[in-house]
Amino acid sequence: MEKVKVILADDQEIFNTIRADFLKKIDYVEILGLAKDGQEEYDMIKELKPDIVITDNQMPYMNGIDVIEKVKNDNEIIDKPCFIIVSADGLYEYRTRIEEYNILDIVNKSIGIEGINNRIKECINNLV
Question: Which ranges of the chain have pLDDT less than 50?
Answer without folding.
Answer: none
